[in-house]
Amino acid sequence: MTDRRxxxxxxxxxxxxxxxxxxxxTLKARGALPFLEELKPRLxxxxxxxxxxxxxxxxxxxxxxxxxxxxxxLG
Length: 75
Fold this sequence. Notes:
There is one protein chain. By secondary structure, the chain is mainly alpha-helical. It has one domain. The protein contains four helices and two strands, in the order E-H-H-E-H-H. It has helices spanning 9-15, 21-30, 51-58, 67-74; strands at 6-8, 48-50. It has a two-stranded antiparallel ribbon.
């Protein structure tokens, strides 16, 4: 059975230590948040992301250093 949980932008930002909205979208545009896979179709205008990938990244099981922490220190 597949994991059907999803997170909204607000939830992902909260999980990333309440990352500012502008920082979130800047990092996303740069590709610095590779664990974000948008689910389609959208629910109206709401963007949803796969929860299993976000959880894996936050548990440091992504296989790469956490780019978000490095980016936040720079910005």
